[in-house]
Amino acid sequence: MPQLFADCLNEVIEYLNDDKYSLHSCLLVNRLWCQVTVGILWRDCNNYSISDYRTLINCLPDESKKILKENGIIISTSHQIFNYAIFCKVLSISKVHEKIFHLLENQYNLLVEDLINYTHIIVQEICKMYMNQTSLKVLEYVQYSDSITYDIYPSPKGFLKNLTKLTFSSNISPELLINLTQTCHNLFLLDVIIIYHIPKELVDLITIQKNLKCFSMMIHDGLKDEIDSIPLLTMELPKTLTRFVVVGENYNISLSFLVNFTNLQELEISFDFSECIESFEKLQDAIFPQLQILIIKYACPRMEFLIKFLKNNGKNLKKIHIDVDDCESEISEDSENSINSLNLTIAKYCPNIRKLSTGFSDKALEMLKILFNNCQYLESIKIWCGGRFLNEKEALEAVLEYSKNIFEIILQYEFDVKFELLPSELESFFIDWKKRIPQKPLSFVIFDSEFCKNGLDKNVENMKIIEKYIKLGVVKNFEIDDYS
Questions:
Q1: Where are the alpha helices (DSSP H) in 49-199?
Q2: d(Cα 350, Cα 360) in Å, to the nearest integer?
Q3: Contact at 8 Å (CB) between 461 and 467?
Q4: Burial of 182 (C-beta count, 10 Å sphere; 0-12/13-18/19+)
Q5: How far is CA 285 from the centre of its chain?
Q6: What is the C-alpha to C-alpha distance for residues 241 and 13, in angstroms, rounded to an integer?
Q7: What is d(CA 441, CA 88) in angstroms, rounded to the nearest whole number?
Q8: What is the value of pTM for the model shown?
Q9: Share of the chain residues as helix, strand and coil, in percent rounded to the nearest 5
Q10: Which InterPro entries match (predicted)?
Q11: Dihedral of CA 464/468/469/471: which sign?
Q12: How many angstroms separate the CA atoms of 317 and 443, rounded?
């Protein structure tokens, strides 16, 4: 019975996973509540504060503390109620390195060389502690510098045998890759950052997987011959993949290999320059019968290829994100017609879309009306504003008048454009939103950048109005994000 209660309590507290304030209140109820809550608070190292890392150092075994002392690293020790290291299921080596570096930087007046050396020693001991005390579910180990490496080989405790998600850079040690191949056979997600080369051991790791569904590769740096071999690498991937992400920096690689993954439900392509994805032409006739999410970031392929792709694959799409801020120079000489053609294709061939991110030219109100009439299930829309795109007033009025199920509006600004929405117009929008039937609380998000000094959110009166309607419950969620 006590175990049943503990299991039920764990399920209940799980619902508070994103509510840190409530979780900290749960710590104070009794020891059982505290133990269950601690397990949730400490399972993801990405959520640790710098003071949490001070606590983690206190959890190091005596042998590790002795090593720290022998290297001149003096730490303050205190008694810990729990061995917090055993709760960790999500480990990011680079995040641990970053936080320990800042901890030492704030606590000691060290030379840069000593700061780097001390950080390396402490992080290595933390890795050893994890290897002997926990079994990870998620591991991230990205090594941008060959001079900073950590040993995280599998231990008898099964440190990596239950791993389901793995992110790493291709320049990690071959020994670690070999050990991963021997230990990790049930990865669900594999995320690889290609730096300099594609090791044979990476191919072996891919070949041994039984349940791989998501694969992501970022081409960070490398020799041309290595980059040209990427299609050969992808041949070892299971054709049952449901998610594929390819990110490139200044490289032109062929995307033709993607046509083999006909079970894809999500496809994300991200390149710095449109020249890098001219090979999208190879995809225009491909059929992905289960594709639900299409994301194309930064550079965009030629419009004619993209439109053909949407005509073939739009029926089941539920989310489309296409960056259109470079349309004028990179997609077509006639930017307005290109954007209109894209949106008309989405309206005609993507009737089941739920979430859309695109742009509408400053003369495209009629196009927005067509989109809302044809895409009855649309719940979230991101609209580029200002300059050659619609202004905020026109965009918001169109959402009010023509949309039926929208509950999230995202306004994205181009760099240094000036907002045009008056405070009275913003308040009028919220008043009319409150009258909508059925009434749905609004999620209102603004994307701009550090270069955008005149966005809607920079106006004090606008912010006061937003705060007013948050308190009234009209706006359920309000965010300001930097898209850069």
A1: 50-58, 62-70, 93-107, 112-133, 174-183
A2: 17
A3: no
A4: middle
A5: 29
A6: 33
A7: 36
A8: 0.85
A9: 45, 20, 40
A10: LRR_dom_sf
A11: positive
A12: 22
Which amino acid, 236? E
Residue with tokens 């005149």: 454
What does the DSSP assignment read for 392-461? HHHHHHHHHHH-SS--EEEEEE-TTPBP---HHHHHHHHHHHHT-SS--PEEEEEEE-TT-SB-GGG-HH
Copy the structure tokens of residue 120.
């390396």
State pLDDT tens for residues 256-283: 889 999 999 999 998 876 555 567 788 8
- Alpha-carbon distance of 343 to 360, in angstroms, equals 8
DSSP assignment of 234-296 equals: HTTS-TT-SEEEEEESS-----GGGGG-TT-SEEEEEESSGGGGGGGGGGTT---TT--EEEE
What is the number of other CB atoms lying within 10 angstroms of the CB of residue 118?
21
Mean pLDDT for the stretch of residues 105-116: 83
Bond into 61 cis (ω within 30): no
Tokens of 71: 């290297």
Rounded distance between C-alpha atoms, residue 303 and residue 299, angstroms: 11
Closest CA to 394 of 431, 369, 423: 369
Q: What is the pLDDT of residue 418?
A: 60
Q: Residues 188, 163: contact at Cβ < 8 Å? A: no
Q: Please indicate whether residue 220 or residue 119 has the higher confidence score (pLDDT).
A: 119
Check whether 233 has a pLDDT greater than 60.
yes
Quickly count: other Cβ atoms within 10 Å of residue 276's Cβ: 22
E strand or H helix that includes residue 228: helix 224-228
Q: What is the band of 21 on the pLDDT scale with cuts at 50, 70, 90?
A: low
CA atoms of 255 and 280, how far apart (whole Å): 6
Predicted confidence band of residue 229 (pLDDT cuts 50, 70, 90): confident
In the predicted model, what is the mean pLDDT of residues 426-443? 90
Which one-letter DSSP state was computed for residue 63?
H
pLDDT for position 155: 61
Q: Annotate 148-173 with b (16+ C-beta within 10 A) or e (fewer).
A: ebbebebbeeebbeebebbbbbbbbb
Q: Over 50: is that where the pLDDT of 333 sits?
A: no
Helix axes 50-58, 93-107, angle to 10 degrees: 90
Between 211 and 133, the higher pLDDT residue: 211
Q: What residue spans define the domains of the chain?
A: 1-41
Is residue 37's pLDDT more than 50? yes
